[in-house]
Protein: Aldose 1-epimerase
Organism: Lederbergia citri
Amino acid sequence: MNIRKEEFGKLEDGTVFAYSLENDHGVKVTCLDYGCTITKIITPDRNGKFENIVLGYDNLEGYLNNSAYFGSVVGRVAGRIGGAEFTLNGKTYSLEKNENGNHLHGGLKGFDKVIWDVETEEKADEVSVKFSYVSRDGEEGYPGNLKLNVTYTLNNNNELAIQYEGISDAATLLNVTNHSYFNLSGDLKRNILNHELTLKSDQYLELQENLLPTGEYADVEGTPFDFRQGRFIRTGAESEHSQNKLAGGGYDHPFVLNANRNEEIILKDEESGRQMVVETDEVGVVVYTSNQLTGEDAIYGVLPRKHLGICLETQGLPDAVHHANFPSWVLEKDKPFTSVTTFKFGVV
């Protein structure tokens, strides 16, 4: 087990470093102190060939020039807040409008666009990087001074755990996630249409034209949103279902999980043999199949295109602050927040 630190680039307010965590089996996770951004995850296929399974860039400029949130931690609130405002304890707060009059992924300068403080730890059977950041009262419009820790831990069971810990000196909102785009083919050799996804979920959230939830829970039964027995991403991308078409040909939908810490999310790529099992204590997962992915900056030598990656964003349900029937993301004053999502990499 080891951690390697090296310079990745420079910003006006500091130097950005990359931290590479590697276990005794050769599995490697590289992340930046800029946005807690995961740039690479190197895992073997069924033949033992090690390749990268996430989307990212070779240089800092790629992350600065593009807004796809590759591998970053997003917040204070992941997803959209309708109208970029909310009311908390009788006071209305206005947030930065950074997507069609709404607030997306923490605003213009969310957690993905700042340099975090870093501590590293090496043990016999695991290595970890702990990122820390203080989001000041009023930042992007949110109340309260919020201290957040994000810890990435890689162990010898080929598991990557992401732990979030937060506390605020005033009531605020908090709903964070990691926005990695996965492609288990290895080094982006193929798109993700033949990836098979299994979810322990009986319901998903219907979306409006602006991709905000309508507030209605929809049953997956008999639809392209039924992943309970496994389903290829292709079936949704090619579906005529109104919700798949609304999302741009695929998925950009929140699913309500009916199990936690029990192999509730499984992604497989039959051709490479790679499998990733995701376990979380969050209530939901947003499945996004990169339906809107475009641009001219190459992603490790591959031009951006639709369906090149899949995001599995474990989190609270989007726009919950406007829907009383969704679990709340309100973080009360001085009340600790903690959440853990674990990714286990293997082959089948």
Remarks:
- The chain has one domain: 2-347.
- Helices lie at 60-65, 233-237, 242-246.
- The radius of gyration is 19 Å.
- The first helix runs from residue 60 to 65.
